[in-house]
Write a structure and sequence with these properties.
CATH class: Alpha Beta
Distance between the termini: 22 Å
Bound molecules: pyridoxal-5'-phosphate
Number of strands: 8
Largest sheet: 8 strands, parallel
CATH superfamily: Alanine racemase
């Protein structure tokens, strides 16, 4: 999978250019709407972390691929009637943005499973149509996750509005990093900043992202 090699090289170069260790940033392969043969090719090339947006589609892929070495991240908007599947089948949920969801995921995580890794999604540009909490709600949400024994607060996630100017991209990601670090002072398990996509991953990595989320640039355009 030539695209995977190229993408990893781009990530490594961005990390080095920012004076960060080569392995500071992990790649989340966003496999939503991608056919199984492309996902299998990525697995064969060594990719283990996959991001999915649609619960039913994700469960089907988990069942077919049935590989315990894979790590599944939910990155879509959360409907409260689907939290059971998220709690039972995913390793990470990156789009947690309200207390109700935190309570449900905690209650529905099966006993015997490792705690579910949670990122709080921040709506940095306060876009009304977008999921994510506002920055001033982070405090209360972090406290709620911390009180939930079956969840583990790992960090923040954001999907900023697209900007073409790299300096503007960096500014937004720097705000996200500052929000993350302020909480991480108090919540020791916070080690993950999920930020950066194909159009802005260099800016995200310069600001401290530890996980970039890439779909099309890795797998090709989504069919249909
Ligand atoms: C779809 C999606 C991506 C990847 O988008 P591409 O344009 O395919 O790279 C990243 N993050 C989230 C939250 C997404 O929903």
């Amino acid at each position: 999978m030539e695209q995977l090699v190229r993408l990893k090289d781009r990530i490594t170069r961005a990390a080095k250019a920012s004076g960060r260790p080569e392995d500071a940033v992990t790649l989340l392969a966003v496999s939503k709407k991608q056919p199984l043969d492309r996902i299998k090719a990525a697995i064969a090339a060594g990719q283990r972390r996959f991001g999915e947006n649609y619960v039913d589609e994700a469960l089907m892929k988990m069942d077919v691929l049935s590989d315990p070495a894979l790590e599944w991240h939910f990155i879509g908007p959360i409907q409260s009637n689907k939290t059971r599947h998220l709690a039972e089948r995913f390793d990470w949920v990156q789009t947690v943005d309200r207390v109700k969801i935190i309570r449900r995921l905690n209650a529905q995580r099966p006993t015997g499973s490792a705690p579910l890794n949670v990122l709080l999604q921040v709506n940095l540009d306060a876009e009304p149509q977008k999921a994510g909490c506002l920055p001033d709600q982070l405090e209360a949400l972090a406290a709620a996750v911390e009180e939930a024994p079956n969840l583990r607060l790992r960090g923040l996630m954001a999907i900023p509005a697209p900007r073409s100017d790299p300096d503007e991209q960096k500014k937004v990601f720097a705000e996200l990093k500052a929000l993350h670090d302020r909480l991480a002072d108090r919540y020791a398990g916070m080690d993950t900043l999920s930020a950066g996509m194909s159009g802005d991953l260099e800016a995200a990595i310069a600001a401290g992202s530890t996980m970039v989320r890439i779909g099309t640039d890795l797998f090709g355009a989504r069919p249909d």
